[in-house]
Amino acid sequence: MKGQKMNKHQQDRELRKIQDGDEQSFGKVYDWYVDKIYRYVFLKIGSKEKVEEIVQDVFLKFWRFVRDKENEVKDINALLYSIAKSMIADYYRSAGENIISLDETMMIEDETSEEETMSDDIDISLDIEKVKGVLKRMPQIYQDVIIMKFVEEMEHSEIAEALGKEEGNVRVLAHRALKQLRELLKSDD
Amino acid sequence: MTSLREQLKNLNIEPGAEWKKETRNFLMSEVKKQRTVTGNQESGWLENFVNFFKISRLAWRPVGVVALMAVFVLGGSGFVAVASRNAVPGDKLFAVKRAMEKVNYFMVTDTAHKTELASAVLGTRVNDLQKVLDQETKLIAADSQEQTNEESIMVAVKEVSKQIDEVNEKFTAMQSEDKESGQKVAATALDLNEKIRSYKEELKTVKEKVSDSEANKELDKVLDRVEDINSEVLAVLVDKHSKGEAPIEATDLAMRVGEHVRQVETKIETVTDTVKTQETEVKNSELVAKMSEATETIKKANEALDKNEYLLALTLAKDSDKILEMIFGSIYEVKNDEGQVKGAESEATSTVDIVKPVVDNETSTTTTKNLEPAESGQIEPEPEEEPAEFQVNILQ
Questions:
Q1: CATH number reported for the structural domain that contains residue A71 in this entry
Q2: Are residues A145 and A165 located together in one domain of the fold?
Q3: Mean pLDDT per segment of 10 residues, for chain B of length 396 residues?
Q4: Residue A122: enclosing H or E segment and its boundaries?
Q5: Chain B residues inside the 8 Å CB shell of A12
Q6: What is the residue-wise DSSP string for A61-89?
Q7: Domain for residue A1, yes or no?
């Protein structure tokens, strides 16, 4: 399912049905997105049990949110990621762990994208634990962009929608995040 | 040196299949509960009325308003219409509920939407059947003085059956409608396939609880019919997938087609057992030959599946299913020739029970073949005629 997403027509139809209380459509959304959301949470949280708990709650919150007729939902993908993001933040807050934030305005100012020209080769073999360890030391926004763009292969426009950012900013953030990831991996090696 | 992006893309992180399944089941039961709670909270007549109007998506359509008003007048008042929402087959208000559902068909013009509506109504009929069964179970459990009505279960099952025909009709109409886009047809077929899979499970659960043998037989027919439609739906999905129009991955499609092929396989296994348990006279060489033909055909269907030739797999599964029907026909004829289906026989020894290998008809969930019982005192079936109806239940 990596890189696969519901098209607009499907999304609208499933959202409409969920609003009308159709649990089968909810099941369909679960089937489509559970792997993606699981990967996203897994790469950001240490404990497997906690990951499973959060993923389950993400979908329950999604159902409640969509069922509430006061809420307007345009994009299932974006909504699921934003719920997961906020639940991860809650988790870190309650666990008393500091999360690295980033002064994004500083980072984005005058930045031009070198993403396409930057060398992509690295003399390190990655495994899941290594990636998790390095991601943990990166700002949340970089983690999000790395996972969404390079692990999930989402489009810039989708990432922008999920993170509530401009598409141009996402492009720059992706470049920066990849650069930092490479540096951290090299320094660890 | 390897590409960092490539390595990130290939990180193999997936939740366990068991966890995914359990979580799905848990979530589905949770949302079902929440839906019920919400439904109860909104049970005021005004909310019901407003919700009904919203669900019907008619409030903003002048023609819908006129049609609804007509139904209200026919039903006596708007309150009758609202009250009918909880009616089940056998209730006086059930006709109003059906009329309301029918109105919806007139409100939409595209055939894909009509198919969706029909499949949604099928879900309602399955729920109605569950409600009727629950009512009957409660009455029996409470040892109520109120008389239980076994017929109401049969009526509810027949309503499910009618709605299956309606789904089939709408789905066929959608396929022949050129103006529907391929993507839309594919999305509707996918939706229908998922609904069918879910309804099948619910019907199987109902069947396990139904003790009335006639209703049970009717449910067998219903399940068979649902699987037939599923085969058609899958064929459309495969076709659209080959044109890049279906929003489904090849692995997912293979799983769905494989699921259908396995159903036919299970049917063959059960029919083989059935043949084995028949009187020696029945086990003639022709029957055995047909049996191996069916087995051989389904084997080829599996081979086609392995080669990702989904349409061929479906066609072969269908062929195998047809052979099974012929086998039943043969059994029926032999039994007739032996005079075992003479009309004067009691219900207990009707063709149904003769063909059915299972000792306990009431509770069995194994595959069965059902022939319409010969009507008492009048049937002398024409040997050359096909049996009135024969069905195989594919419950496993």
A1: 1.10.1740.10
A2: yes
A3: 80 88 91 64 48 47 54 56 74 81 77 87 89 77 58 86 89 74 83 86 83 81 87 89 82 86 84 68 69 88 88 90 76 53 35 32 36 39 42 37
A4: strand A121-122
A5: none
A6: HHHHHHHSTT-----HHHHHHHHHHHHHH
A7: no
Task: Specify the long-range contacts of residues B379-382, CB closer than 8 Å, at least 24 apart.
Answer: B379/B341, B379/B342, B379/B343, B380/B342, B380/B343, B381/B332, B381/B336, B381/B341
Kindly give the residue spans of alpha helices, DSSP state H, lying in chain B. Answer: 4-9, 17-41, 45-56, 62-75, 78-83, 94-107, 111-141, 150-176, 182-209, 213-242, 250-277, 285-306, 310-337, 351-355
- C-alpha–C-alpha distance, residues B169 and B173, integer Å: 6
Does residue A109 share a domain with residue A90? no
ipTM of this predicted complex? 0.84
- Token pair of B113 as six digits: 């939407």
How close is the nearest chain B Cα to the Cα of A39, in Å? 6
Per-residue confidence (pLDDT) for residue B80, from 0 to 100: 64
Which range of residues forms the domain containing residue A162? 104-188
A28 in reach of chain B (CB within 8 A) = yes
Q: Whole-angstrom Cα distance, residue B231 to residue B236?
A: 9
Domain total for chain A?
A: 2
Same domain, A110 and A180: yes
Residues B298 and B320: beta-carbon distance below 8 Å = yes
Same domain, A127 and A158: yes
For A21, which of B30, B35, B195 is closest by C-beta distance?
B35
Report pLDDT for A37.
94
**The pLDDT value given to residue B262:** 87
Q: Which residues of chain A have pLDDT under 50?
A: 103-116
| Nearest CA distance, A36 vs chain B (angstrom) | 8
**Is B198 in contact with A30 (Cβ distance < 8 A)?**
no
A63 found inside a domain:
yes
Q: Is B337 helix (H, G, I), strand (E, B) or coil?
A: helix
> How confident is the model at residue B270, as a pLDDT?
77
Look at residues B71, B305, B187, B353 and name the one whose alpha carbon lies nearest to residue A8. B187
Who contacts A177 (Cβ-Cβ below 8 Å, separation ≥6)? A138, A141, A142, A143, A145, A146
Same domain membership, residue A90 and residue A112: no
Cβ contact (<8 Å) for A42 and B13?
Answer: yes
**pLDDT given at position B285:** 73
Question: For residue A175, what is the domain's CATH number?
Answer: 1.10.10.10
Interface check B18 vs A, CB under 8 A: no
Which pLDDT score is estimated for A113? Answer: 47
Q: Are residues A85 and A111 in the same domain?
A: no
Q: A150 and A78 in one domain?
A: no
Residues A20 and A91 in one domain: yes
DSSP letter for each residue of B77-109: SHHHHHHGGG--TTSTTHHHHHHHHHHHHHH--
Contact B27 A26 (CB under 8 A): yes
Look at the block and give the residue holding tokens 């950012």: A165
Residue that finishes a domain, picked among A38, A62, A95: A95
